[in-house]
Amino acid sequence: MQLPATSTLHQVPIFPPKIQNFLSKGRIFPGTHFYKYRGMASFSGFGVRSQMAKGGSSFGADSGDFTLIEYVGKRGINVEDDLVVLLDHIQYACKRIAAHVASPFNNSFGKQRSLGAVADSGSDRDAPKPLDILSNEIILSSLQNSGKVAVMASEENDDPIWISDDGPYVVVTDPLDGSRNIDASIPTGTIFGIYKRLAELDNLPTEEKAMLNSLQSGTKLVAAGYVLYSSATILCTTFGSGTQAFTLDHTTGDFILTHPSLKIPPRGQIYSVNDARYFDWPEGLRQYIDTVRQGKGRYPKKYSARYICSLVADLHRTLIYGGVAMNPRDHLRLVYEANPLSFIVEQAGGRGSDGKHRILSLQPVKLHQRLPLFLGSLEDMEELESYVDVQQKVNPGYEV
Question: Does a structural domain hold residue 80?
Fold first, then answer.
């Protein structure tokens, strides 16, 4: 096997003993090349990461070399085997969604032209499905195949879907948040939360137990996560023992640990909100925004506005840089948006609030219940809540 003269990765001219043995047995196909990258072995031309990396001393806890499933399976973070299996099916679903979002053949590009063609034909049987509906079907299929889910509650369905009588978990999800912006290639995301099935409800009628299982308080979440589909595909998750983020390596198909023990800064310098609606806000919120962007708040620096209008993207930036991401209207859904994201933020050292109360302490009463949502750095959130009147209760009639 002849190595190429140059490479964007660090080329290893002398193979370690394990690799030499591997080569001597003729187990590398012609046209593949061995490199070392981020402390792990890699072979160009392969669709999976080399198993040789797993035995190396550089394969450390915080080196970025753990895949998502390796992390939850080996780190001793108290994740049950059934939950590992479920997470594996969820990550597979999200990889499929990521591929559809990035594909030039998805029906979001040139949507009006596609819809016109359907109208002319008089039949929509063969028309491509909108990506949010397709994403919902992909996730449902993966949950069914996992054998670990009793019920799924989704933004795309009016009622929860009962999957299995003996599934140990309940999954709530927004399959493709921000899909209305996908025509402009603005980042989108998937949000999910995982609860234990309430066995004490097993004797109730199916519809009733499906609903009650889906309306659990956020304090009962056993896991939550979001996947950001952007310049990178990032899966950020928590199992109640910190927040970790994994980045999809498209050359191997693995989510690789890139942000171990992710912590949101206690104070940021960014607020994220649609401040074109400034004059519709309550007095308290306007005062807060005026104060921090002039540098007259508890933090003596002027804040900047950064707003993508994609919940997952705005939250991800806030987790990395600190500050506050918010929607002061009764718009975001408690069950499958606010609760999972608040759990993630709290496990990263931040806070999720409706402007008055901790999100996770709220008891859902309806599946698609809406509320204001404020997520961010602990000190920023404490300052924001001190203004009291930050919830926009009046809908002026504009579209979201």
Answer: yes
**Is residue 126 flagged as an active site residue?**
yes
Query: Is 337 among the catalytic positions?
Result: yes
**What is the reported pTM?**
0.81
Overall number of domains in the chain? 3
Task: Tokens for 22, please give them.
Answer: 């591997």
Given 176, 215, 360, 384, which residue is catalytic?
176
- Are residue 51 and residue 82 in the same domain, yes or no? no
Confirm whether 174 is a catalytic residue. yes
**What pLDDT band is residue 396 in, cutting at 50, 70 and 90?**
low
The closest of 301, 215, 259 to 66, measured between CA atoms, is 259
Is there a catalytic annotation at residue 176?
yes
Catalytic pick from 65, 249, 254, 337?
337
Identify whether 215 is a catalytic site residue.
Answer: no
Say whether 249 is catalytic. no
* Annotated catalytic residue 65: no
- 282 lies in the same domain as 248: no
Q: Which CATH number fits the domain that encloses residue 226?
A: 3.30.540.10
Q: Are residues 315 and 169 in the same domain?
A: no
Domain that holds residue 102: 72-109+128-259
Q: How deeply is 330 buried, as exposed, middle or buried, from its count of CB atoms within 10 A (0-12, 13-18, 19+)?
A: middle
| Cβ-Cβ contacts under 8 Å for 32 (sequence gap 6 or more) | 1, 43, 44, 45, 46
> pLDDT by residue (tens digit) across 189-243?
999 999 999 999 999 999 999 999 999 999 999 999 999 999 999 999 999 999 9
